[in-house]
């Protein structure tokens, strides 16, 4: 079986949501499973993919809208 091609990406998210990744990693550790950040995100995506379109749309609508992208050069 051929290995899946791996894609490297970066994204922006609110710090509170980012902190939830650490919380989920700890929950996995407490259950005896060491999970990487990417594994937590992949598990979440796999579970979202199982939902109906309406449920996915509802989940996305519950998210805070954030400004994406990188800051302009020279700005802090």
Features:
76 residues, mainly alpha, extended
Average pLDDT figure: 92
The coarse overall form would be extended
Through-space gap between termini? 47 Å
**Which structural category do the helix and sheet elements fall into?**
mainly alpha
Radius of gyration: 16 Å
What can be said about the biggest beta sheet? none
| Number of DSSP-assigned strands | 0
Order of helices and strands: HHH
Number of helices: 3
Q: Which percent range fits the helix content?
A: 40-55%
Question: In oligomeric terms, what are we looking at?
Answer: single chain
Strand content: under 5%
- Low-pLDDT parts are none
Explain what the structure shows:
This is Ribbon-helix-helix protein CopG domain-containing protein. This protein has 76 residues and is mainly α. The chain has a domain at 15-61. 50% of the residues lie in helices and 0% in strands. The chain contains 3 helices and no strands. It is extended. It starts with 14 loop residues before the first helix and ends in a 15-residue tail after the last helix. The model has no long low-confidence stretch (mean pLDDT 92).
């Amino acid at each position: 079986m051929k290995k899946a091609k791996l894609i490297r990406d970066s994204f922006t998210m609110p710090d509170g949501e980012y902190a939830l990744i650490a919380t989920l990693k700890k929950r996995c550790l407490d259950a005896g499973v060491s999970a990487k950040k990417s594994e937590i995100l992949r598990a979440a995506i796999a579970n979202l993919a199982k939902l109906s379109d309406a449920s996915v749309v509802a989940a996305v609508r519950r998210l805070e809208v954030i400004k994406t992208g990188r800051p302009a050069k020279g700005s802090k």
